[in-house]
Amino acid sequence: MDKLLIRGCGPLAGEIRVSGSKNAALPILAATLLSSEPVLIRNLPHLHDVTTMIALLRSMGTELIVDERLGVEINGSTTTKTTAPYELVKTMRASILVLGPLLAHFGHAKVSFPGGCAIGSRPVDQHLRGFEAMGAIIDIDEGYITARAPEGGLKGAHVLFDMVTVGGTENVMMAAALAKGRTVLENAAREPEIVDLAHCLIAMGAKITGHGTATITIDGVERLNGCTYSVMPDRIEAGTYLVAAAASRGSIRLRDIGPETLEAVLVKLEEAGAKIESGADWITLDMEGRQPKAVNIKTMPYPGFPTDMQAQFTAMNTVADGVSHVTETIFENRLIQTHEMNRMGAKITIEGNTAMIKGIDRLKGAPVMASDLRASASLVIAGLVADGETLVDRIYHIDRGYECIEEKFLALGADIRRVAN
What we know:
alpha/beta; cell cycle; 14 helices; 31% helix; UDP_GlcNAc_COvinyl_MurA; four-stranded mixed sheet; cell shape; pyruvate; UDP-n-acetylglucosamine1-carboxyvinyl-transferase, Chain; elongated; transferase
């Protein structure tokens, strides 16, 4: 099991390109199962989770071709199995996203029930209630979800989600694309990745309106066609590098990223003292050598502050000027990385779902262990602003969501390398 060895350095500075979005790529790959024609997906990030989703599609007999530009052409008509086995689903929770497309296109699906997650519970009951509203018969037995469409296929329905659910919105929206009649999703998630999935489905011939709002309307069509689609840039990756630069008192320029997807993050970085400029597909941040100011954050569903950026801002606040409060409202265990930061000299106390952080000038390097994807990124940031060496263990979490993280930080002047266990 590899680790990352980081030696604390001065301000980060440089330019990097933002990779394709993991959180958009996974549902878009699942959506290709809705079509009987080839779908070419471009700008896929080279990540473990993406590889797992491709392996899951292959396990169902789906033919895939990787082209010279590293795009993936997927031919849903070749799918011969509608079962997603435990061996693959257990390694990636997003595997549940094949349930809706399989159910809508083939009329039946069997998907291993996803397990828990280090950051907290993420039940799939909202997904299943949406399918049941469309007439599906759902059964859970021996760890598998078995779903069967009614005679004549899924039917349009009114679905009111009890809570905002990104995965549930994606799964039910994909199923509704081939349902008979109109489906209306209320209290739908509004994340940019939802919008990206809708744009891909529309390119395939789906009829969808309202994506990006709390009410999404889908008029089912008889079939979806093939298309070529490019995955949106990864706003969380972009935010992570922006925060790393801010924490180190440095400067950075990001290419291939739309600032409109990062409004809540950019507002907080400006509050921390960063000078930010942006264009249609670029963002620059410059701390002009200044220590960041402590900022209070509270995670909320989009367009609020993203839970996937909480850990990174917590790391920045450990070396910020002042006292801050970080409140996590989405996942109950997502402050777990603060215990590792305290091993590095951070002054963080936890009360309920809120961390109170008293900023100091520098952290101290130490061996630390990542508990989840975003926590691992926050520990890398902490290592970059610490004196001495920091060894981050269990970095397989990082490889799930950050493409070439060492190379990108090296391009910014960091002292970081991957070492064998």
